[in-house]
Amino acid sequence: MRLSPFFWAAGLSGIVGTRPTLPTVDVDVKFNDILRNLDFAAVLAAEYRYGRWGALADLTYVAMSVERDRDLVPRAPGFSSAALKSRTFTATATGFYRVYDGGAFTTDILAGGWVWSISTDVDLFVAGASAIRLARARLGSSR
Prior knowledge:
With 143 residues, the chain is an all-beta fold.
């Protein structure tokens, strides 16, 4: 069995919205600002082999919060600032069978699936007022 923790880094930029009828927020968090906004991150890859059979797994979870920062700009009049919380989870699981092992060359047959989920909360602020939570968006898929 082999476990491989590793480091993963990224930035976050684009237009974030929760529903088509609600205001959106411009997000631009550069790579060098990610650690300041990171709540939690975990990445793990694992491989297990038993004879010709084996399994692979890969998990990633990232939680970020950007609070009333210069990196967030509301795209609607009347709002002074915004806050964003983003959670991303991905997982891949694969089983395989080695059909040929010629030393320097091998052939495996693989079957597996993956799942991903993204959850984003956007709060918009009016100057001098508390947060207005407009909506929560959750995306996900599995195959």
